Amino acid sequence: MSKKNKADMYLDMVALHKEVTGSCILCTVRFPSREKVKFIVDCGLFQEEKYQTSNYSFPFNPGELSFALVTHTHIDHIGRIPKLCKEGFNGKTYTTKVASELMPIALNNTAEILSSNIQKNSKKKSIVESSIPVFDSSKPLFEKDDVESAMENVIGMEYNKPFRVTENIEVTLFKNGHTLGSCYILVKIFYHGQEPIYALFTGDYSPENKFFDVDSMPKYLKDLPINLVTESTYGTTSKKIIAPIFKETVLNSIKNKETLILTVFAFGRMQEIAYELRKLQDEGLLDKSVKIYSDGKLAHEYNDFYNSHKNGLIVKDFLPKNLIPVLGYEQRNELLSNRDCKIILTTSGMGSYGPAQVYLPYYISKPKCSIVFGGYTAENTLGRKLQDVESGEIFNLNGIMTTKKAKVYSTTEFSSHAKQEDLIDFMRNFKNLKSVLINHGDSLVKEAFAKKIIEELNPKKVAILSPENYIRVGAYGVIKSYPAVDINFNITT
Ligand SMILES: [Zn+2]
Ligand SMILES: [Zn+2]
Predict the structure, then answer these.
(1) Which residues have C-beta within 8 Å of that of residue 171, sequence separation ≥ 6?
(2) Domain enclosing residue 367, as ranges
(3) Which-ligand-closest: CA of 73?
(4) Distance, CA 440 to ligand 2 centroid (Å)?
């Protein structure tokens, strides 16, 4: 095969997102016939304020896409699929079977939030559960009807079974520990007389999950010449620096007869932390008479989902004994007025949304209270603010001067993202790594992680995916990069 032929077929990739929000990779395949096929991997909502305007339009024509692939159902990976369909995408969206069942839960909740944000001037303040920005627009990005029509073209596929998406593109989904129903995705691009191009997209990746077994990678996959598109959220974080504090903090707080507030994300973290409490009960360390409450409508929906999918899970019974769901305003107010020792699991994880907006401002000034943030808290969230204020300091909380008397902790021990060692280990699986394209990380993290990969694995090429450049790969790895002037125009920072 001549060298010229090698470049006759290639795959151009560009990320619409700079960092870890609004995940979407636009892929364009050019076949030797000069035919082009476009597809995307994930289509997330930009949740950070600074990227708000990026949600309104796509820097490509959605009608030109042949298909979409979805790695998992976090909103920053699927939140713009209804919008994509509204704007003319009428191909199929492929994901796992479980993810296809989870998608309507997540998207309908987002539709509700988007609508309630639009009606933000109405007197009734609603409690919404995740960090969806308030859009400065008179119409929501999409509504429940749009979710329904988008879902008509979502197809849930089995793990490990290749399926054809176009005449010359085949896709396989592999189990991933990041969330229930998540996958990493192999795309095989083939054409008569050409070496196939293999691209593998990690999505958000974790090698393990408390609720299900993650299969080891099949041997045939390890042997393929892979162009790997990897996430890098914790690409510079070593597992060694994460000190677990959760168990000790819970037990101390209960020993001191406090109110313990645990903020959780509705999907995944709620179930994981509930299960940690259940284990403490089962081990006899946490007395079953201590009342445990859970608050968050969406979290309760996900709890039910986990319970209804028990057969596929290794943990069948994860909720603490005598867990009491908080079902509304009155019950919540009653809780605030009682001084009993108790545990309250509440959404949202970062504290700025959901019922945490009620609990945190109340309990932050109570000395007999501990607050644990069970995951990452972004800048400008209530969670971050309460952590940054010094203990005993008087500060302005939504206009009311408040003294921080509660003890505030945060832990990343429950993170569902691989750390640096896990990501490097994942890459070591591939005996024939042609290139590594780094994606889904802060800009500085992506570069530092790239250097680490070069030191540890020395693949043929390492590149950084961003909205600034197209990265072109072929069967033998990275061919070149060139400026994505057509993509970059609506990225505001
Ligand atoms: Zn995710
Ligand atoms: Zn993500």
Answers:
(1) 69, 94, 157, 162, 163, 164, 165, 185, 186, 187, 188
(2) 243-410
(3) 1
(4) 7
Alpha helices in 296-347 (DSSP H): 297-308, 329-337
Contact 103, 73 (CB under 8 A): yes
Which of these, 174, 204, 171, lies nearest to 74 by C-alpha position?
204
Q: From ligand 1's centre to the CA of 107, what distance in Å?
A: 14
The answer to whether 54 and 46 have CB atoms below 8 angstroms apart is yes
Quote the tokens at residue 112.
């509700």
Neighbours of 45 (CB within 10 A): 29
Strands 400-403, 394-397: pairing is: antiparallel
Pinpoint the alpha helices (H) of 43-137.
75-78, 81-86, 97-118
Q: What is the CATH number of the domain that holds 123?
A: 3.60.15.10
Residue for token digits 């996958």? 183
Q: If you count them, how many residues does the chain have? A: 493
**Single pTM value for the model:** 0.93
* Rg of the Cα atoms in the chain: 23
Alpha carbon distance 338, 334 (integer Å): 7
| Cα(454) to centroid(ligand 2), Å | 24
Given a contact cutoff of 8 angstroms between Cβ atoms, the answer to whether 53 and 492 are in contact is: yes
Report the DSSP pairing between strands 65-69 and 36-41.
parallel
Cα of 261 vs centre of ligand 1, distance in Å, is: 24
Residues 38 and 98 in one domain: yes
Residue whose C-alpha is closest to residue 372's, from 380, 359, 149: 359
What's the pLDDT band for 51 if we cut at 50, 70, 90?
confident
User: What domain count does the chain have?
Assistant: 2
Q: Which helix (H) or strand (E) holds 326?
A: strand 323-326
Tell me the pLDDT tens digit for each residue of 140-188. Answer: 999 999 999 999 999 999 999 999 999 999 999 999 999 999 999 999 9
One domain for residues 444 and 318: no
